[in-house]
Design a protein that fits this description.
The protein has about 375 residues and is of the alpha+beta class. It is built from 10 helices and 18 strands. β12 and β13 form a beta hairpin. The longest helix has 22 residues. The protein starts with a helix and ends with a strand.
């Protein structure tokens, strides 16, 4: 009789351990690549820390499945996917940061992923993980048919604020994250539209940074605005962020992420009218730069005026921070609201250069525009 009791007790302990929910982080990153490796490493660290926050907020066990450097290969990816034990209560993040591309004959919006010695459709891997029936599956594809290098000035303004999250509370808001994962959801999102290349710098890839920036922004909202925390709003804001930052390039077309879901995030998004009033749109606001020849011949040859044009009855702006050329004595300048609503900033310049304006609204939101 004693033996039976002991056996039942042991089985009970084993059952409780196996049933503990987990957050799985499948991070397959081509960090060893000589062209994109440095940016991919930035992606890896950003994503792994964010997913770990989810496990802490949910009280789930964190289970990492990392493949980077020389370990990133088709054999290893295939082996990790086969060996993964996923329960129906688990949350799974599947993230690829690598080269990718699409054939003309390919259908759908998702690229093939370059995994050494193979070219595998991203959607196939997503479906393979979906077949394990996790509670939620978030598949994020940072890949394209090639990458481009930005010049030093483009890299300077693009990285300012893109990966910087000090503008919001650095503490993880467990309640907000729990709300985000309160309902089962399956999503696959890729960096750019069909047939478009995507960009990266040493600070990470633009879509990944934009996605994490949008995530941080929404889960950091105060309690009275938590109704805005949905995957749909995060993805829409990530689309806007990505389009803004990539619109800076003069040589390559901008891009925006596309996604597909098998859950009801579109129905859970707040009404368009509420979202528009909360999150400013690029089409509503203009970052204007006007340059003319300087009248004083011994000064800098050109005078440039930066200003922001927007509907003052719709939006209320506290200040604007301009990110100028990195060679200026003050490359980052903040202009407060002086009452004229244009936030003008005048300076002498020797030539043209890309610039960024970060617009801070009284409701606590900010918006980045590029020229």
């Amino acid at each position: 009789m004693k033996k039976v009791i002991v056996i039942i007790f042991i089985l009970s302990i084993g059952s409780s351990i196996s049933a503990q929910p987990k957050v799985h982080a499948f991070l397959f990153c081509n960090t060893f690549d000589p062209v994109i490796g440095k940016g991919v490493r930035g992606n890896f660290f950003s994503m792994s820390s964010r997913i770990y926050e989810v496990s802490r907020a949910e009280g789930y066990k964190y289970q990492d499945h990392y493949l980077i450097n020389n370990d990133y290969s088709f054999i290893n990816v295939d082996s990790v996917l086969k060996a993964a034990k996923i329960d129906t209560s688990d949350i799974v993040f599947l993230y690829f940061s690598t080269h990718g591309g699409m054939r003309v004959s390919d259908t759908g919006n998702f690229p093939r992923l370059v995994i050494p010695d193979s070219l595998i459709p991203a959607y196939t891997i997503h479906r393979r993980m979906l077949a394990k029936h996790p509670r939620s599956l978030i598949t994020i594809i940072e890949a394209c048919s090639g990458f481009i290098k930005t010049n030093s000035q483009e890299d300077f303004i693009l990285r300012q604020g893109v990966t910087n999250e000090t503008l919001v509370s650095p503490a993880t808001d467990s309640v907000s994250l729990q709300q985000l994962f309160s309902a089962p959801c399956n999503i696959i999102v890729t960096a750019g539209e069909r047939g478009k290349d995507t960009y990266t710098t040493s600070g990470g890839s633009f879509f990944t940074n934009s996605f994490l920036q949008a995530w941080t922004y929404f889960v950091s909202l105060p309690p009275e605005k938590r109704y805005l925390i949905t995957w749909g709003n995060i993805l829409l804001q990530a689309r806007q962020n990505t389009f803004q930052v990539t619109s800076n390039s003069k040589k390559h077309p901008p891009y925006a992420p596309v996604w597909e879901t098998s859950c009801d995030i579109d129905n859970r998004i707040v009404p368009q009218s509420l979202r528009d009033s909360a999150v400013p749109r690029v089409t509503d606001i203009t970052f204007d730069i006007h340059t003319k020849s300087a009248w004083w011949r011994f000064s800098t040859p050109h005078t440039t005026v930066l200003r922001i044009l927007y509907d003052t009855t719709k939006y209320h702006v506290d200040s604007v921070t301009y990110y100028l050329h990195e060679t200026f004595k003050e490359p980052i300048v903040t202009v407060p609201n002086r009452g004229d609503n244009f936030f003008r900033y005048k300076l002498g310049v020797w030539g043209t250069f890309p610039a960024k304006a970060r617009i801070f609204f009284t409701k606590g939101y900010y918006l980045d525009l590029y020229q």
